[in-house]
Task: inverse folding
């Protein structure tokens, strides 16, 4: 198949959506498909054999790491030259509108996927009054597609309740070749804990942004005697978080990649994830694959990954004491933590990227088959 993929975010940016897309593109290409990626310009022209058509844009005022790339005629020219079998728009917002427009203009099947829970993000940026309008825009765009893919059963229910149709769950995926317990390292633990490897080590990995609610880890850290916290990643909220965690044993590590990232997961005692806006939470799967038990909010797509008391702990996102009690229990109960490590690894090992991409290809074939069916008289 020849797939035109439109995304509002791609390499070199680092986040959960990019992680999914880069593995998806890699496996689609490996499985004999041709992919053309339309994304905001980032300096790359190719990835794993797939051509990247970069579109110039400008930084989003509230979130400078994200670029808004405006549709332009060169997109239509590139599409006509590529001759795709279908169009897949990822989180359609601005650039995705071009994908929707050209799928109609060129009479191509359209697949859309939903990865960022934008309506819930708005409240963290003081724009909660726009949530109703955002849902209307999401419904209008996604209902142009023959299939709408979501990454958890919770998101399927929520989008359905807001009028989005033809929804399927695109299964989760994790790189089990990279993220594995054997990469636990005394050197990495020493680095993350800033020279206190014997201390209980809490870990967060991901964007440092308001909607991730990282500030809510502070009372958890303070409630566990001698605990240290490592925050791996970067983002627009870093300065505020540095002020918030001042005078606490918190290490702002910055970005890590490859085996360093995998080693960070494997070397910590608990992965703490307070976000209530996750459509899935790929970092949770990465932590579990690396054998790091997780403590996460019982919200969004997270319960699809974490089974409370089996491979991690879930807490009521409205109960601050819940996160404290769950983390304290995980740190103090060494035998239980070891069992959870093993269970977490076993869960993650079921979800390789190759299987997730084969499922995606089945969805692609489904829309192509629908297109080829004769019209009823």
Result:
């Amino acid at each position: 198949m020849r797939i035109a993929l439109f995304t509002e975010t791609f390499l070199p940016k680092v986040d959960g959506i990019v992680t999914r897309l880069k593995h998806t593109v890699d496996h689609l290409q490996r499985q004999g498909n041709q992919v053309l990626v339309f994304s905001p310009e980032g300096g790359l022209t190719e990835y794993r054999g797939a051509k990247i058509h970069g579109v110039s844009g400008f930084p989003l005022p509230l979130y400078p790491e994200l670029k808004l790339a405006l549709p332009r005629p060169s997109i239509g020219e590139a599409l006509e030259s590529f001759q795709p079998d279908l169009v897949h728009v990822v989180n359609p917002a601005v650039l995705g509108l071009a994908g929707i427009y050209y799928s109609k203009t060129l009479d191509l099947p359209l697949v859309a996927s939903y990865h960022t829970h934008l309506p819930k993000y708005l409240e963290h940026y003081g724009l909660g009054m726009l949530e109703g309008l955002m849902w209307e825009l999401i419904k209008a765009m996604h209902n142009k597609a023959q299939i709408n893919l979501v990454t958890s059963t919770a998101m399927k229910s929520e989008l359905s309740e807001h009028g989005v149709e033809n929804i399927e769950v695109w299964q989760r995926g994790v790189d089990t070749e990279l993220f594995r317990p054997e990469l636990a390292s005394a050197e990495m633990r020493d680095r993350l804990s800033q020279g206190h490897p014997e201390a209980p080590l809490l870990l967060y990995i991901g964007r440092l942004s308001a909607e991730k609610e990282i500030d809510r880890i502070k009372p958890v850290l303070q409630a566990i005697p001698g605990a240290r916290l490592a925050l791996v990643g970067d983002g627009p909220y870093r300065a505020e978080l540095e002020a918030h965690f001042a005078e606490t044993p918190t290490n702002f590590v910055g970005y890590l990649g490859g085996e360093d990232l995998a080693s960070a997961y494997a070397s910590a005692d608990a992965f703490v994830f307070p976000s209530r806006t996750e459509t899935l939470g790929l970092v949770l799967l990465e932590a579990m694959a690396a054998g790091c038990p997780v403590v996460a909010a019982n919200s969004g797509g997270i319960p699809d990954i974490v089974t409370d008391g089996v491979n991690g702990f879930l807490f009521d996102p409205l109960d601050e004491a819940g996160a404290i009690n769950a983390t304290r229990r995980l740190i103090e109960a060494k035998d239980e933590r070891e069992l959870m490590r093993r269970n977490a690894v076993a869960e993650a090992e079921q979800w390789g990227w190759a299987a997730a991409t084969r499922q995606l290809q089945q969805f692609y074939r489904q829309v192509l088959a629908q297109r080829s069916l004769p019209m009823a008289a």
Notes: The two ends are 30 Å apart (CA to CA). The CA atoms of residues 12 and 42 lie 6 Å apart. The mean pLDDT is 91.
